[in-house]
Amino acid sequence: MEKWSIQKLFQSQFDGAASTLNVPLYQFKAAQAISGCRTETMGSHAQYCANGHLCGVFYNSCRHRGCPQCQYAAKERWLAEWSARLLNVQHHHWIFTVPHELLMLWRYNREWFQNQMYLAVSNTIKQLSRTKAHLGAQPGYLLALHTWGRNLSEHPHIHCLITHGGLDDSGKWKSPKRAVMFPVKVMRRLFRGKFLSGVKQALADGMLVFPPEQQARQLTNLSNKLGRIDWQVYACAPYAHGLGVAKYLARYMRGGAINNSQIVAVKNNVLTFKYKSHQTKKTERQQVSLPKFSRMVLRHLPLKGKPTIRYYGVYHPTEVAKLNLARAQFKQPVFMGIQLPTWQDILNKLGTTLSCPECGSQERIAAAPVKR
């Protein structure tokens, strides 16, 4: 059976067929990049060993964040840095989801919508963290945006990894009074209120684009309706350390919403892919046409120049002094950055060793790009 990949899918769908797929320019450019990844389209470079012997000429990677072929090293480097940064303290994993009635607003205002999600979640945590009845200190937390369900449905939500406690004004680590840190019902109401407040302000400022079937009055009515129901804010069981959640986030921070191993078969222009269902806890299969599957994958690619993970509190990159103040209280060494793993280190971790065919040296140096 012929083996398919996201790259091969895009190569078949975007060869002069961009107009038929009707996708935004940034998605079309992403598909072009992924289609050309590690092919002659991207050009090539030579690699030499430390002793100057030519080890080979290789095609360049596209380096697009949504490419499932060339982003493994980037994920490993992020995980290596955050494995070293994380405080040796219990962490919580929260998931914030907006109602699916707002998906039309999401489709037409994606940049504004995802920024509003980050604001609503971060301001909710800041407000509760400052309140002495809950914590009265500054925790460290990071927020990661995911836009998909496991079956590639549109499901924008925020994952939050947050320390159990934080630094108070005197610089001492303070633990919360509750095992779950913050009450779930209060988190739900604050997140809902802050998000809908942002919607109303954006309406007043004329910042939103409306879908054909929805106008300002209808969105206002929908916001009022959604303000009276519970939103999905889920508190996972606490983790003894944040590394488990960090590994989960690293898996999805780059490389797209689906990996090549999930593509089961392609026949008669219909693709079958598999996923593990949240509802049944079983592996399910779904069949869609090739053009539809391409659109499903592309709509979950990150917006150009917009980070999908943001950092706050003592985990913010500018707050290293506060981070080290907290680390000292947990008897952790000062964090001053780490030597990120090279692609050779990553290959060694995977059990793959590259050696020079002439002298056996395992150290390689990439030379200037080879002209096409």
Q: How many strand segments?
A: 13
Taken as a percent bin, the fraction of beta residues is 15-25%
Cross-sheet strand order for the largest sheet: 8-3-5-4-12
Order of H and E elements: HHHEEHEHHEEEEHHEHEEEHEHHE
Main β-sheet description: 5 strands, antiparallel
Number of helices: 12
Structural class: alpha+beta
| Global outline | globular
What does this entry look like structurally?
- The chain is α+β, with helices and mostly antiparallel strands.
- It folds into 2 domains: 6-66 and 353-370, no CATH class; 72-257 and 306-329, no CATH class.
- Helix content is 36%, strand content 20%.
- The protein contains 12 helices and 13 strands.
- The strands form 4 sheets. Strands 8-3-5-4-12 form a 5-stranded antiparallel sheet, sandwiched between helices. Strands 2-1-13 form a 3-stranded antiparallel sheet, with no helix packed on it. Strands 9-10-11 form a 3-stranded antiparallel sheet.
- Strand 4 and strand 5 form a beta hairpin.
- The longest helix is centred in the N-terminal third of the chain and has 21 residues, at 110-130.
- The radius of gyration is 23 Å and the shape is globular.
